[in-house]
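Example (one chain per record):
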Amino acid sequence: MKRVLVSDAMAPEVAEILGNAPGIKVDIKTGMKPDELKAVIKDYDALIVRSSTRVTAEIIEAAVKLSAVGRAGTGVDNIDIPAASKRGIVVMNTPGGNTVTTAEHAIAMMVSLARKIPQATASMKAGLWEKGKFMGNEYCNKTLGIIGLGRVGAVVADRAMGLKMNVIAHDPFISPEVAEQMGVKLVSLDELYAHSDFITVHSPLSQETKNLVNADAFAKMKQGVFLIHCARGGIVNEKALYDALKSGKVAGAAIDVFEEEPTQNMDLIGLSNVICTPHLGASTDEAQTNVAIAIAHQIAAYFATGEIKGAVNFPSVSADVMVVIRPFLDLAEKLGTFQAQLLTGALQEVTIEYSGELLNHNVVPITISLMKGLLEPILTETVNFINAPVIARERGIRIIEVKSSETKDYTNMIDLTVKTSKEISRTAGAVFGKNDLRIVRVNEFSVEIVPEGYMLAVSNEDTPGVIGNLGTTLGGNNVNIARLHLSRDAKARRALVVLNTDSPVASDVLDKLRKLPHVISVTPIKM
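Predicted structure:
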């Protein structure tokens, strides 16, 4: 008998589905404190959560029987994925379950903002009848600029076109052909700022998108633009937004997500031209019911047949094959993650060449693992081993697998070539021994890089003093270098320095590094 613990409030269908599944006993215990969960988790084979329960490394360590964690929803920030993976615990979520709900919330916020519905409601509840005070704006025939055309952004575009809006979008990882099929015109970020009457944000939060919508961005926007932000807190700089709202550059803002949650920024949300909600994007009865039912079915199937669906940390392969290919799955994902953070332009084509021991195996799970690593850093939606190929197809990315029997510099090698709208880039990796992973090529440079933790990739002119300046600048800003690898291209008089650091490098320190003599580019990489 498998025991399943549901530790967050969910739709009653969850207990019904699991209770009727053969060989499963379900317990509902909500509102537990961490110590209480830690005390009981040892008795359970699976745990189902929403966002309230934090599945920390400490909880996982105490979960001696646990083999699966199910997240009713998309985000898994409350689950320690590395700790679960290390213990062999599969973590499943329900990707796409909140897509429509989140998109509809953005549209509702836009409409409410344009017609000043919340302000008029508050006025009437105060006993006033201020008909002339709340003159609104039409959205029909206006231009909506969407930053991020992933799953949510695509639904927003569809709904907005139904409102007879002109839709443009910026997404460096969507091909123009895919956007055209949606009826959306892809433009540069500056063009989007210049031509949009309404702007809605649907990008993931990453080092590249943090503070993306800042004072410089607002300066490029049309006078009287409306901003809708239902993505992730931190993409829009709240101080810059406040100043733009006060000056009238931004006529109004609708905000669902904040830099700090619960937000303490009362100056911003107190403005009369701001409407806001407490991160309600995915909060509808239908969405919460749908994701709860989905995860209940996934857990039931996992125990009944061993099927793994919606896994964020585990591909679907048999146990005996997993023993052999596990190091290559890890290598492939790391190669993709590394490469993604070096790329510019929209992904168009991915070629993966396998050699050595991999010729004897089905490489599809390894390809999926690589695509997961390649897509995850650049997308808003959750990418896992189930939906990575689907997302690639949706975005018009061509995937080519090649098995090569040619003699290579390394046995058991994965060679990755990525074509984007702006460049062709190559990386390669190899497994040494049983589980020693190395990146062995970055474009024209032969390297031997350990792909882990915080990294910096520095392109520079091959001239004396560069390494010393890098070390001095990092050390002077309390950044410790764990590893350093240097590779040179004598003909081009160029060099590549890849560093592993003990901590992330702050943006101001990155700016200092980029201003050093003979440094061409500095790219932070998080593995």
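Caption: The longest helix spans residues 319-340.
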